Amino acid sequence: MEYLNVQGITKTFGGIMAVYDVSFSVDKGSLVGIIGPNGSGKTTLVNVITGFLKPDRGTVLFNGQNITGLRASRITNLGIGRTFQMVKPFYRLPAFKNLVVPLSSPRVKRMGEHYGDKDSTSLDILEDIGFERDSSVPYKPASVLPHGYLKRLEMGRVVALQSELVIFDELFSGLSLAEVASISPLIERLFEVGKTVIMIEHRLKELFRIASKVIVMDLGKKIAEGSPKDIMQDEQVKKAYLGVELKR
Amino acid sequence: MLVYGFINSLILALMALGFSITFGISGVANFAHGAFYVLGGILTWLFLMKFGVPYILSAIIAVAVVGIIGALMYRFLLVRLRGLVLSEVITTFAIGIVILELLRVFGVMGFQYRLPSFIPGSAEIFGTYVGIQRIIIVAAGALLMLTMHFFVHHTKMGLSFRGVAQDDHTALSVGINPERISIFSLTLGSMLCAFAAILILPLGTISVDEGYDVLLKSLAVCIIGGLESTLGVFIASFIIGYVEVLTAMYISSSLTMVAVLACMLTILLIKPSGLFGKYKEIEERI
Amino acid sequence: MIEKRRKERIDRGIKACTDDIFCLSSLREISYLLVPRILPVVLVFFLVLVVSLYWKKVLVITFVMTIMAISWDFLASCGLISLGHALFFAMGAYSAGAMNHYLGLPVYVTLPAATLLGGVISSMLVFPALRLRGIYFSVVTLIIPLMLMRVIEATKIIGGTEGISALSPLPGLASSIAISMTAMWVVLFSLRRFITSDYGLIFVALLDNDRAVEASGLNIVWFKIQAIFIGSSICAFCGAFMTHYYMSVGMSAFALDLSIFPVAATVVGGMGTLAGPLLGALILGPLSEALRGFGTFRIVFYAALLVVFIVGLPEGLFHYVRRKYEQIERWVEVK
């Protein structure tokens, strides 16, 4: 079933076409990757889907509902969660209070009493995503946490929101192989409980291992779509990433 | 009416030039602009009236002094706030207040505080009588704008300056020294400001409140035109110049400032980077 | 052999466990926590009783200005830096004046009513700018009061340049002191509780990363309006109070002084803690009064001190003092 349907999205910034006529769809419960060289418009596309930008043209349908142009917080409450490429936690708050913010959203409130007291729920979530429970790490202000923990905190937000469709914007950037290896199971777990995941990534090896479909963008346009294996063979993709071979 | 509007526009352009240059070159918004303006006028008056120094020399000394004050302000105060835009704004604004209010305390008000015109008399242009002083202003303003535009956009030095304004870390990594350039930009901006004051003040008296007005008008011109564009400053000064004259004629002369501020407000709400500024949607609003 | 030393900072061993769970097991520890909170209240109370009539009046005004400074810090903690705080004050002042003059309402009605009305009007005025970020928002807050000021002056509504006078007074100096002082403590302690509560956290988060708050499903424009409403209502109360204290309201409600003092007091005292502006205002207020001789010299004083602190001690006095209180610094030899 088509869970997310994006049709003809175009977004221009004062003369520069960041995204041009991009269309694709994502099935419920699948893991889709969006890849492409820097500046190809991936983040802009996600910003449009999640409501942080209004597209010039095109529509976004989520679960049959037209969400084009809705406010970002409204879209989040409908079930789409996202992380940001530039990780900026709530520095002055302790790590676990960072999660209390999404836990205060209308979406979570609607889920009712089962969720319980916000502080302890937050600590539970932190434990799930890799913060050691008995240490003082969750209580430290977010400003002192190292990068790996900050990425997990970003992830924590979408876990707290219990978003049905999760979009990760370069979650793996800046992480060592060990850290990637420890975060991947968390993503797989999301996937196993039936969430739909979209990942923008540059680290292709990890992505190709888990994605069922990959979409490739270059200079604002979609240039390829298919399984990881097909994508790796595609000429256009190779040209975008590696350039053209000069014929002598 | 058209002629007055034109002249008014160039007066505004001249005023705003100093502010725009400082911001365009080093990214520092100098909210003490109004204070420097009045200071330039007062210093000239001081040298001229109290010390009997010839007019041209007084003017040169005053411009130089204001330039030095600008440089010192950067060197000792702003350099510590590099990059924190809001703190820079608040600090320069506070310094401006200190200067202006100190002047007010020492009684800078009243007719005696006037600068004489360079060449008295008037001439006829397109059917209206225009003071020669105003003509000088127009000529000087136009000339200065062209020079600045050329300098900032076409010379090597000018381009390196703009590099600093956009990203001083990158500028540093290609061998440009942002600190020296910032000091230069503040000096240049302050001097231009004092220079404008000397040209324009003979049209009226020197008053402290005008200092605040000058700051607001320069801010309006730069914001409406776009903070990084000399062309924008030019066009915006015309827009505001005519808005002011039209408001004074058809509505009420006491509401001119309101009209100007209203224009600024409108642009900020619609396109904060100004008519000719770069469009930065994500940074401006959410 | 060169002697090498380094500075070592250790927390005084009074806080146990984590940063927000305290082990209150001894009188020493309890007093360590309570004294900084009780002491200022007691000191101020004592001060009020002891000083001369002239200085009592100064204190009233100082308390009012302190409340404004605290509200400024609150808004700044939410990421809304206002360069035109006088606007909120003036909205409250004029509301109270208008209600008293045109509708004949008594003081005990106008004070709360003007607080609310002033808050509502201010929020409506600022609302269009709420979607702007950072410096653009602040510039708008600078412009709006200037515009309003000139409109009132030019159109001569609500008294024009002369303002409205002969309004109802407050019932005596003693009650003025009582009201202003109580209001000050109420505002301080309730705002402090507020921003540490779960709901208040959201406001603090707005400063750190407002897009993340939006991405957490919370409409930030709505929260910003709430913040503005709270901050501006508090200032509107100050305006209304001062209107009845002076029994008149006029252009002076928009004075630059009122916009600069909160900023100066907060910078001097320390941003972000709400107690910093208290400290800063209690220092700046009376000090500048002592220099009253020159009239507008006051504003020179605030502005100059503002510059000195923003460049020299940006963290502010409160943070500095607290650091000393909570940590011991000493030189330790490096082996």
Overview of the structural elements:
- Chain A has 248 residues and is of the alpha/beta class.
- Chain A has a single domain, classed as P-loop containing nucleotide triphosphate hydrolases (Rossmann fold), CATH 3.40.50.
- In chain A, 37% of the residues lie in helices and 25% in strands.
- In chain A, helix 3 packs across helix 5.
- Chain B has a domain of 191 residues.
- A two-stranded antiparallel ribbon of chain B has the order 1-2.
- The radius of gyration of chain B is 19 Å and the shape is globular.
- In chain C, helix 2 packs across helix 10 and helix 3 packs across helix 4.
- Chains in contact: A-B, A-C, B-C.
- At the B-C interface, helix 4, helix 9 and helix 11 of B face helix 5, helix 8, helix 10 and helix 12 of C.
State the shape of chain A. Answer: globular
> Share of helix among residues of chain C?
55-70%
Strand order of the largest sheet of chain A: 6-7-8-3-9-10
Unreliably modeled segments of chain A: none
Q: Enumerate how many helices of chain C there are, as a single number.
A: 13
Elements of chain C, N to C (H/E): EHHHHHHHHHHHHHE
Secondary structure tally, helices of chain A: 10
